[in-house]
Amino acid sequence: MDLNSVLQRGVDLGASDIHLKVGKPPILRRDGSMTPLDGEQELGTGDLEAVLEKITEAAPHKRDGFHETGDLDIAYQDEGLPRFRVNAFRQRGAISFAFRVIPKHVPTFEDLSLPKGVRRLAEEHRGLVLVTGATGSGKTTTLAAIVDHINRTRRQHIVTIEDPIEILHADQACIVNQREVGLDTVDFTQALRRALRQDPDVILIGELRDAESAQTALQAAESGHLVLSTMHTVDATETIGRMVEFFPPLKQPMIRSIMAGVLRGVVSQRLLPRVDGGRVAAVEVMVMNTRIADLIRDNETEGIADAIGEGQFFDMQTFTDALIAHVLSGEVDQEVAANAATNRHDFLVTLEHALKRKAADDRRAAAERDDVEPEPETPSVPEPEPPAAETMPPLRLAGPGG
Predict the structure, then answer these.
(1) Which pTM does this prediction carry?
(2) What is the pLDDT of residues 21-51, one digit of tens each?
(3) Which domain holds residue 164?
(4) For the chain, which terminal residue's Cβ has fewer other Cβ atoms within 10 angstroms, N or C?
C-alpha cells in the first residue's frame, strides 16, 4: 500500500478521518459516516507494519514506545500532504491506525459559523477558557481559531503544549512556541510548570486530563495568564462538575471557589451533518457572570443551564438555541437536530413554538410589504381655476330725503 496516495485520495474526497485495519480496505469518515475507499485492497499485517515504520521515521523512540505499550500518538506530514494527527493501537494482536486530517489553513470564526460569544471569550486577557465536546466534535479547530485571533490582534507570547502538535501557527503579531509531548517535553504537567517560567501571556494545554494538570492550569489562570484547554465533556454543567471531581472531597469547596474566580467561559459543541453536505457545529456558550459564579461557589450547578438560557446580554447561547437556528435556516434536518439535542422531547416542543413564531413573522412581514407597495401612477389632472369674482357696482348710500 502507498500510504501517501491513500491519504491524498482521502483528503481529496473530503474525509475528516482515515482508518487502517487488517483485513479491511482503508475506511474514510465523511460527514460523520464511514465508507470504504474504492479501488483499494484489504490491508495485511505487513502493510500496517510498513505504515508504522514510515510515520515514526523521525521519532524511532515513539516506535519503541508503541512496541512496549501498544499505543502511539504522533503527527505525520509528508511533501504535498496536509498534516495528520495519528493514533496507532493494537487490537486482537494486530495494528490499527486512525489518521485525523488537520486543515492547512486556520479557519476564522466566520468560516466556522461560531456565535459571537466565542469571539467575546477569545478577547479575554486572563483566566481559564475551556472548549469541550466529544471526540471529533471540532474542539481542536475551534481552539485553533481562538489562538489565531489572539495571534493576529495582540502583541504577546503564546505557548502551546500538545500531544501531538496538530495545527501549526506561524508568528504574526504574537510569537508562538509550540511544544510536543514526547518530543519537546516529557509530559503535560512538567511542560505546564515550565511554561510559567517562559514569560507567557497565553498558555494552551491540549487537554486537562487529571488533578495535577487541572491544578496547574488553575494556578496559571490565577496568576494572570490566559489559559486555553479542552475537555471531553458535553456541556458547561458537566465540565464544571468534572473539574471539581478531579480533586478529593476535602479540596472541592476550595476548587469551586477558585473556579468561580478564574473561569471565563465554556464553549461546548457537537458537529451535525448539513442538509447539502458537510458538517456544522451546534455550540453552547457559557460566559462567566456574577450569577454563574455564585452557582459554582454554592455547588448549585444545576441552575447553570437556566442562567445560560437567560444570558443573551452576555452573548450566551444554549444548545437548543443553536439547534433551532440551524433548523430554521434550513442547514440541518429537524430529525437530525432532535437526535443531537440534550432532551429530544423538550427540543421538539421548543422547535414547534419557534416554527409557529417564524410563520407568524413571515405573514406579518408579507402583509407589511403589501401595505407599502406604491399604487400605480395616474396622470395628474390640473385642478380647474376658480371662476373670477363678479365685479359689483359700488353701493350708493341714500342721503336724507332719499
Answers:
(1) 0.83
(2) 999 999 999 988 899 999 899 999 999 999 9
(3) 116-317
(4) C
